[in-house]
Write a structure and sequence with these properties.
It is a single chain. By secondary structure, the chain is of the alpha/beta class. The protein has three domains: about 140 residues, Rossmann fold, CATH 3.40.50; about 140 residues, Alpha-Beta Barrel (TIM Barrel); about 140 residues, Transcription Regulator spoIIAA (2-Layer Sandwich), CATH 3.30.750. The protein is about 35% helix and about 20% strand. It is built from 22 helices and 21 strands. Strands 15, 16, 17, 18, 19, 20 and 21 form a seven-stranded mixed beta sheet that branches. The chain starts with a strand and ends in a 9-residue tail after the last strand. It binds iron/sulfur cluster. The site of iron/sulfur cluster has 13 residues, from helix 7.
């Protein structure tokens, strides 16, 4: 009997790696070699990874097994149809058929639900007897003890950067709403015995890098610590995936680095704590990111940040803010994803209930398309911003800013960034969406006082004493900070002003407001609550000539500021306190 195991791949989209790209910086997936190792010895096995070789549908075979992720489901169904047309029975397995079995059953002779260890041999034996059942479901989460050595020898030679992919654990201790890991592996976190992992490492070509394909290699920190400490002897370079709480374990970071860890993929997901709360990513704390990233970097470990765009608190400023954060923290690599409600996840259920799913073309569920209705921007703006962010992050300007740091590792980081840059080049080019450009132009810090000059300053709080005024030189801001949010319900730009509004900063603010008035019909709400000082000239000149079609409201303006404003700006509306003006 001959079994053909297939890993489908994207067909001619700009997301598909070329064979050259796979060879220069990608690794072989472990699923097929592992399935081949589970196949009874008397059965001949052939592996086809569509990322590196085409499928010959006419090559004789007795059974086809296809591993299916959601975004490749359509392609898997096409492949299945071709083989079934030729009378070859097809088994579909993996995450998508397991979490969405009804659909998969319509495209195969049988489906395999759950992990393969307990069901693959019965499937092969039943196929030999011509008695395939329509469905095989694993009744338990298998132990990871005594797993056979994956059949890496069956992978296409010379096609990958490395075939040293290896797994130490399955599952993740967390359960984020958008992730299918815990839904597929159950609320379990299972580890292989460390001696077995080490024995497997010893069979590999250690001159090539090693990739641990765990979903979270530090799910059990004590296990990971022992593994890393015992790996030091091999002097190999390796990378994996883990959660940001790695930064809480100095000993673990040290052991990881000493055992050869050069980079970790870490799902930071979003820089907004409200978003993290929404998707129940409790392991991440946005306000601790700077510190956590610095600690990991200080241990010599690079970060490939997984970033999701389009969550419910993301307006069109998210692209620029995310880029700014990644550059400030000098994140070495990043992969961006448009939020994707993968079937079987909590997020998918929620979006389905809320009627926000736009379509079910699974080939668009790869993180590069908007398949749901975003809350604070249009689906088109989300895609444009996604491409803009990718191009900006892998621009030479950004690469140098993030990875320029004399040292041997810099060349490695630079080379990998340039490889990404070459790949990103074929992505569509987009400007920032229009509103994002407005936000980008308005946000920032403008100079207010070239030198300490207290003349004419009017404090926000009139009770400020003469003594305080004499001391302001030491304490006052010399800038006006302008932070703008979109207030969607009111269709208004909510402008927070902080610092000093004098003639110099007012001129810059006026230019920005004028730009916004030209580019958008939205109202403008200026919040004066954090204006530390103003001058009469600043208060008189910060607005462009009044535009009757647009309403300008000023919030939290003290009476002594208001006198100046009323004298020079007719038609401004003043608001003292209004809860519904809080930015969203
Ligand atoms: S921490 Fe990562 S792997 Fe674990 S559930 Fe969340 S997204 Fe998935």
């Amino acid at each position: 009997m001959k079994v053909t195991l297939i890993s489908p791949d994207l067909q001619s989209t700009h997301f598909k790696f070329t064979p050259k790209e796979v060879k220069s910086f990608w690794f072989a997936k472990l699923t097929l070699p592992h399935l081949a190792a589970l196949t009874p010895e008397d059965v001949e096995v052939r592996l086809i990874d569509e990322a590196v070789e085409p499928i010959n549908f006419d090559e004789p075979t007795d059974l086809v097994g296809i591993t299916v992720n959601t975004y490749l489901a359509m392609r898997a169904y096409e492949i299945s149809a071709e083989f079934r047309k030729r009378g070859v029975p097809v088994v579909l397995g993996g995450i998508h058929p397991s979490l969405y079995p009804q659909e998969a059953m319509r495209h195969a002779d049988t489906i395999a639900i759950g992990e393969a260890e307990n069901i693959w041999t019965p499937i092969v034996r039943d196929a030999q007897k011509g008695r395939l059942q329509p469905k095989y479901a694993s009744q338990e989460y298998p132990s990871l003890q005594d797993l056979p050595l994956p059949r890496r020898d069956l992978l296409k030679k010379g096609a990958y950067l490395t075939t040293n992919t290896i797994q130490t654990s399955r599952g993740c201790p967390y359960h984020c709403d958008f992730c299918s890991v815990t839904d597929f592996f159950g609320h379990t976190y299972r580890c292989r015995p460390i001696p077995e992992v080490l024995r497997e490492i010893e069979t590999l070509n250690l001159s090539r890098p090693l990739v641990f394909v765990d979903d979270n290699i530090i799910g059990k920190p004590q296990y990971a610590l022992e593994l890393f400490q015992r790996m030091k002897q091999y002097k190999v370079r390796w990378g994996s995936q883990c959660s940001i709480n790695l930064a809480k374990h100095p000993e673990l970071m040290k052991a990881a680095r000493e055992s050869g860890c050069v980079a970790m993929f870490i799902g930071l997901e979003t820089i907004d704590q409200h978003n993290l709360n929404d998707v129940h990513k409790g392991v991440n704390h946005a306000n601790a990111y700077y510190d956590a990233i610095k600690r990991i970097h200080d241990h010599g470990i690079s970060i490939n940040a997984g970033m999701i765009l389009g969550m419910d608190h993301d307006d069109e400023s998210v692209f620029e803010r995310t880029l700014e954060f990644l550059e400030k923290t000098r994140i070495e690599y990043a992969t961006f994803h448009i939020l994707t409600p993968v079937p079987g996840t909590v997020l998918h259920q929620r979006m389905e209930q809320d009627g926000r799913i736009l379509h079910r073309d699974w080939s668009k569920y790869n993180g590069g398309y908007t398949v749901f209705r975003p809350k604070l921007m249009s689906p088109e703006a989300l895609e444009e911003g996604y491409y803009w962010t990718y191009h900006q992050f892998y621009s030479m300007r950004s690469i140098l800013k993030r990875v320029f740091d004399p040292g041997i590792e810099m060349f490695y980081k630079l080379a990998l960034n340039l490889a990404y840059k070459r790949m990103i080049r074929r992505f569509p080019h987009h400007d920032l969406p229009e509103m994002a450009q407005v936000l980008q132009t308005m946000n920032g810090e403008v100079h207010a006082i070239p030198e300490v000059n207290k003349k004419g300053l009017i404090p926000y709080t009139i009770e400020v004493t003469q003594q305080t005024m004499r001391n302001v030189g030491e304490t006052m801001d010399r800038f006006l900070r302008i932070r703008v949010h979109q207030h969607h319900r009111l269709q208004a730009l909510f402008v927070e002003l902080t610092g000093v509004l004098n003639g110099i900063s007012a001129r810059r603010l006026r230019e920005r407001i004028a730009y916004a008035l030209q580019r958008t019909q939205w109202d403008i709400i200026l919040n004066f609550e954090h204006v530390q000082f103003a001058t009469a000239r600043g208060l008189q000149s910060f607005l462009p000539p009044y535009h009757p079609a647009v309403r300008i409201k000023c919030l939290h303006v003290p009476r002594h500021f208001r006198e100046h404003l009323e004298r020079f700006h007719q038609g401004i509306e003043f608001i003292d306190q209004a809860d519904d003006l809080l930015p969203v």
